[in-house]
Every structure is written in C-alpha cells, then in structure tokens.
Specification:
Blueprint: H1 7-17, H2 21-30, H3 36-90, E1 94-98, E2 104-107, H4 109-115, H5 119-123, H6 136-149, E3 151-159, E4 165-175, E5 181-188, H7 190-253, H8 259-295
Antiparallel strand pairs: 1-2, 1-5, 3-4, 4-5
C-alpha cells in the first residue's frame, strides 16, 4: 500500500521557494517511497537503538566517573605517600619499619647516616644484624612484646657498618593497617651516655675525695682527743695544786704576808682559773668536733 506522493504540493513548494520545478520533481522521483508500516517499523527500530545507546551511554558515564574518582583517589594516595616519605627523609631522627620477624621494610636517610649502611643494604638485612645488646633469640620475643603492647620505648646499642657501637633511644609502635609492621624513631644518644658516664666518674672521684678528707679529719680529731686527754689529765692536776696552795697560803698566812705577796697569790689564783676555763673550752671543742664527724 505505497502512498502516491502529492506532486501538486511539491510543485507549489518549488515555486514558493524558487527551486527549479523540473529538477525538484525529478529528485522527488528518485526518493524511495515507503509504506506507513515500513516507516513505523523503522521508527520502532530507531527508538530501541536510541534506548540501547542511551543505556550504554549512562553506563559509560558511570564507569567514566568511577574511573575519574579512582584516579583522583590514587593520585591523592600517591601525594600522601610522597609527603609522608618527604617528612621521614628530612627528619633528624632515624626511622625504620620492620615486619614482625625483624626484616627491614623501610628506612630513612637519617638512619642510613647513623648506621653507615645504604638504604639498599638495610632493606636486605634483619634487625638482629645491627643489635648489640640482644641476641636474635632475645630480639624475637622483644618484637612480639611490642606487637602485643602496641608500643614500646627503650634504650639499646647498635653496630655501625664500620664496626663501631653507638647508643640509641628507640620509640616503636605497631601498625596493623596495610600489613603488620613495627615503625620506630631512633635517636643517637651516644653523646648523652658519654656525658652521664663522665658525671658518674666525677661523682666517684668526689666521693673518694670526701672519704679521704673525712679520714684526715678523723685522724685530726683523734689527735685532738689525745691532746684533750693530755690537757685534762696532765694539766688539770698541777693547776688544781697551784690554785689550792695559793688559796691555802692566803687563808692561813694572809695576815702576815706583805701586800705585794698577796697580790702575787691572787694573780696565781686568777691565772689558774683562766687556764681552767681554757682547758674546758678545748675539751668542749674536742667533744663537739668529734660529735659532728660521727654524725656525718
């Protein structure tokens, strides 16, 4: 049921728009004539094709968005890792990461300088190859303790590539995200430990000098005790005799003695009392000094 084109309508269109009527109608004859059913079938096909293309386009857009988001996340992760590595590489303290068996996973430049090894050399080594205070048998339980606690802080000693030994302070934490590992910051405390050792040596020397000085003072105190004993026993008796006899002369013969003689006896008594007070002062000083030394 092909429909016949309306030739008069197309002729009027050619005249209206200034087309060549003969050529315009000849072109119309060259156009295939389709039935309504054929046109409807074609339209239904194109509608389905449009829906398929639309669905595929939406899926492609979603995939494209997911891809863009994934690329953005990956880029942010790379940037974060680069910042993390830059911070670690510029840190003044040493840094390393090891697995629970003590194998090195990551090191920074500061620890390379501290140990004398290159990064490539350290990443092929185990912590037990650097540790001086603990054997490999003791390192394993120490690492497990750090894993169980989640953190640890201690002092130990490491061996450099040239064989020299240095003191380090280690602050370690256990990280389970992204693979089990122990991360640690290490500070070279060799200078501090040497200063502490020097202080201890100075203290020992000071204590020895104090003991020597104390011994000297004790010896001097013993000499003072000997002197005080001599003063107490060897001088007091003659002083008492002198004072007693002079007093007896005054009491028994004072009335018959010339005035000048009585003055001499008074001077003897006064000097005896002064000498007695001096002896008492020396004895008091001796007892006081001895008491202080025994107290210290």
């Amino acid at each position: 049921d092909d429909e016949t084109p309306d030739v008069d309508m197309f002729r009027k269109q050619a005249q209206r728009y200034g087309f060549d009527e003969t050529e315009y109608l000849a072109a119309l004859d060259r156009v295939p004539h389709l039935s309504r059913e054929a046109v409807s079938s074609a339209m239904r096909f194109f509608a389905k094709l449009s829906r398929v293309i639309s669905t595929m386009g939406f899926s492609a857009i979603q995939q494209s968005r997911m891809l863009v988001e994934s690329n953005r996340t990956a880029r942010a992760l790379r940037e974060s890792e680069e910042r993390h590595r830059a911070i670690l590489q510029t840190a003044l303290d040493g840094f390393w990461a090891v697995d629970p068996q003590g194998r090195f996973l990551e090191v920074n430049d500061a620890y390379c300088r501290m140990s004398g090894y290159s990064e490539a050399e350290l990443l092929a080594m185990n912590l037990s190859e650097l540790e001086c205070n603990e054997t490999s048998e003791k390192i394993a339980p120490h690492l497990q303790k750090s894993v169980a606690q989640g953190h640890d802080r201690f002092e130990t000693r490491h061996r450099r590539k040239d064989g020299t030994v240095y003191d380090v302070e280690v602050s370690v934490q256990y990280k389970s995200a992204g693979g089990a590992r122990l991360v640690a910051f290490l500070k070279d405390i060799t200078t501090r430990k040497q200063a502490e050792a020097e202080i201890r040596e100075l203290n020992r020397g000071l204590e020895q000098r104090v003991e020597e000085r104390t011994a000297e003072l004790l010896a001097a105190n013993q000499e003072l005790d000997s002197f005080a004993y001599a003063v107490s026993h060897d001088l007091r008796a003659p002083l008492r005799a002198m004072s007693g006899f002079s007093q007896a002369l005054l009491e028994d013969y004072g009335a018959t003695l010339p005035g000048e003689a009585r003055e001499f006896l008074d001077e003897i008594s006064l000097a005896s009392r002064d000498m007695g007070r001096l002896i008492e002062g020396l004895l008091t000083l001796s007892r006081s000094t001895r008491g202080r030394l025994q107290h210290h």
